[in-house]
Amino acid sequence: MAATQHASVALAGNPNAGKTTLFNALTGARQHVGNYPGITVERKEGVAMVNGREVRILDLPGTYSLSAYSPEELVARNVLVTERPQVVVGVLNASCLERNLYLAVQLMELGAPLVLALNMMDEAEAQGLRINMPRLADLLGLPVLPLVAKRGKGVDELMAVVTSRLDTPVHAPPLHVSYGPDLDAALASMQQLIEEHRFLTDRYPARWIALKYLEADADILAQGRQAGPLSAMLEEIAEKTAAHCRSTLEVEPEAIIADYRYGFIASLMRKGVLSREVAEERRAFSEKMDRILTQRLLGPVLMFAVLLALYHAVFTLGETPMGWTEAFFGWLSGVASEALPEGLLRSLVVSGIIDGVGGVFSFVPLIMIMFFLLAFLEDTGYMARVAYMLDRVFRMFGLHGSSVMPLIISGGVGGGCAVPGVMAARTLRSPKERLATILTAPFMTCGAKLPVFILITGVVLPEHQAWAMFALTLTGWAMALVGARILRWTVIRGPATPFVMELPPYRFPTLRGLLIHTWERTWQYIKKAGTVILAISILLWAAMTYPSLPEEQAAALPDEAAVAEASLEYSIAGRIGKALEPLSRLAGIDWRTNIALVGGFAAKEVIVSTLGTAYSLGEVDAEDASSLAERLAANPDFTLAAAIALMLFVLIYAPCFVTVVTIWRESNWKWALFSTAYSTGTAYVLAVAVYQVLSMVIS
Amino acid sequence: MAHIMSLRELQVDQPAVIASVTAKGEMGRRIRDMGLAPGVQVSVFGRAPLYDPVALRVLGTTISLRNNEADHILVQVEE
Are B74 and B5 in contact (CB under 8 A)? Predict the structure, then answer.
């Protein structure tokens, strides 16, 4: 597979500069998306056909800089030095050339074989910007080409330059930017030492290494310390320089370097590269849109309408195809039941494998629609505005403005699903806030918990069912927000990640880009979640089947329902349920419910059907559980206090395993385990407290 | 007359030039990565419904940051 080969052309650029649009235009469907080992940064590569020849292209993660403070930046930098692409295309957004050149300058300092593509030239011209490209090319000593990637304009010309550079590589001497008298002196002496000792120079330019020592770049320092004793000397020079800067200017060298870099860019602009038309400044389309969409009163109202519409679209559009996949797997179960003789093999295939895999696939339509709409909101630029408007509220709970979407999709309006919800947290760029969102999103009232709540409220609060459901939804929000606050004070401690972000101009996304994006992510879900979930669902099936009830005991029972009850009680799950009864009693939960809760780990709607089996009712339909409701109502132990405690427990306890696997995929297995454990622990403590207090109050 | 103040105090649409960025560490880097550097023209485009964060016009783009981040940016305005 192309994934392991080294790309010959790399695309580098800021987020929102149109890198991915160019990548899609070049490679089309011939692309492969994976992850860099050990981190969630995506690695996208593909093959472009240029005049009948194949050119391998790698889309580097979008970054603003090349420091080593975010995984994206570190990846971009490491790919450039280890894979050594023969050409690097710097994709710049021409309408904010200065900021985009900040990255380009750093690429040149690193000695990357750069070709600059000024994307969105049409927008820049519409805003009255005149860019003298030959002048810029001349000043920087590299090719500069215009591009409108979205409409494919300039792509062929760009690729012609790129392929000619592939044929005759041009040696690119690293760019030399002056950083002022203090730093330049230090840089010069460090550079000399580095060159003398050939210190890391097989990977990086000497002056660049010196710069990174001044910036105290953790990654380079670590490499340097391994490389040899010269590192200590360089660190000493860097520290002395830093101390001098602090005492005279009260700033860190890092800040001086950034300021001089912008100064260098500003001087380029003044040398006739950029002129702004004196004619009246055109109010950009985006500004007009923002006047309405982020207006103080109208903005939030429109935002809630958009978020609700998105939520409804995901679940109403998803319903029909979800029905199809469910019907397909139902049909498959039927066929398998017919074909296989009654017994363990049939049970394994039907209840273990087909139900398990069917469970994964039934989410696929939801995930596809969710990713499509989310990509639409993100690519249009609206998602950033949502984060902007809601940040103040969510920050109080240690979250980020972008946390709202995952929480709503997980069931913030009742009937969502935590699987796409957890995946939607990808839009968060702040690692701590993202993790807190992922760990609390499963507290929401997802669609699978609803049948359980409908059953129980129907038994104990038949008059006030709607209010009870509303209260449960609010409890879900309260748990998620308070939970996030507590997590951010304890296990995910630490100051808020800086919010500073770009509100990208509003744009209409291309359908092709949206479809590629949606398919990539859906496929990743199917591939990764599918394998693990199959294994776990077989495990859960085994726990509820083995050891099987001895035949003489089964023979003594009156009917099939009684046999099913006895078999379940005899199985590992049944034994766990019984063993936990002394503990669960404190929360008013009996062993039958315990078994159902164990089964609920497979999927929350299983709680109702397992409860049916445990009350020896045979098959119980989750949608119509009236016979089960009668049984529950007749149980003297099933008091109002016990019912409320049980609902609270179901709301909060361990996410279903599809969610757990998704959390694992989106973070790591430790957080997935943590999520399971702390949710169950919190659920238990709260359920016991509520049961004990309510029992006293009510009696 | 030129006058230096914190970016937080800047009025909507009041033109200013960044005098210095005093933020350190990760916040400082992120602010500078976004093009907020001394000598750059900046103006407040708007504030979020709860007055925080704030949206800025910088070098042809819109950047948003929280008020407590704006505190670390000093700007120069013409009186």
Answer: yes
Sheet holding A31-35, edge to edge: A31-35, A42-50, A53-59, A9-13, A87-93, A114-119, A144-146
User: Exposed, middle or buried: residue A637 (CB in 10 Å: 0-12, 13-18, 19+)?
Assistant: exposed
Q: What is the DSSP letter of A8?
A: S
Tell me which of A388, A389, A430 to substitute to probe the interface with B (most B C-beta atoms closer than 10 Å): A388
Residue of A nearest to B35 (CA): A99
Ordered mean pLDDT values, 10 residues apiece, chain A (699 residues): 60 91 87 71 87 89 88 90 93 93 96 95 86 95 94 93 90 91 94 94 94 93 93 95 91 92 93 72 73 92 88 81 86 88 82 76 80 85 91 94 88 80 85 94 90 87 85 93 96 88 87 85 74 76 84 82 84 90 93 88 81 69 70 87 95 92 91 96 96 89
d(CA A270, CA A97): 13
CB contact under 8 A, A505 and B53: no
* B34 vs A contacts (CB less than 8 Å): 64, 99, 500-502
The answer to whether B50 touches B5, Cβ cutoff 8 Å, is no
- Whether B28 and A252 lie within 8 Å, measured CB to CB: yes
Closest CA to A657 of A645, A670, A675: A675
Report which of A115, A114, A104 is spatially closest to residue A14, judged by C-alpha positions. Answer: A104
| Dihedral, CA of residue A632, residue A636, residue A637 and residue A642, to nearest 10 | 70
Terminal Cα-to-Cα distance of chain B (whole angstroms) = 5
B62 shares contact with chain A (CB less than 8 Å) = yes
Beta carbons of A221 and A213 less than 8 angstroms apart: yes
The whole domain housing A669 covers: 394-497+639-699
Instruction: Report the Cα–Cα distance between both ends of chain A, in Å, rounded.
Output: 68
Statement to judge: residues A156 and A11 lie in one domain: yes
DSSP state of A585: H
**Alpha-helix runs per DSSP H in A396-510:** 404-407, 418-424, 431-440, 450-460, 465-489
- Smallest Cβ–Cβ distance between A266 and the set B31, B39, B66 belongs to B39
Mutate to test the interface with B, among A14, A66, A97, A99 (most CBs of B within 10 A): A99
Return the closest-CA partner of residue A46 out of A63, A27, A64, A65.
A27
What structural domains and CATH numbers belong to chain B? 2-78 (2.30.30.90)
Nearest CA-CA distance, residue A99 and chain B, Å: 5
CA distance A547 to A240: 72
Per-residue CA distances from A532 to A45, A242, A359, A439, A522 (Å): 26, 51, 12, 20, 16
Same domain, A96 and A214: no
Question: Are residues A160 and A210 both part of a single domain?
Answer: no
Distance CA A425, CA B74 (A): 34
**A500/B59 touch (CB, cutoff 8 Å), yes or no:** no
Question: Which of B17, B43, B45, B62 to mutate to test binding with chain A, by most A CBs within 10 Å of its CB?
Answer: B62
Asked whether A137 and A144 are in contact (CB, 8 A), the reply is: yes
Q: Hey, CA dihedral for A550, A555, A557, A562, is it positive or negative? A: positive
The rounded distance, in Å, linking the Cα atoms of A67 and B33 is 10
Do A13 and A76 sit in the same domain of this protein? yes
Instruction: Kindly report the number of other CB atoms within 10 A of residue A78's CB atom.
Output: 14
Residues of A in Cβ contact (< 8 Å) with B35: 96, 98-99, 102, 262
Residue A445 in domain: yes
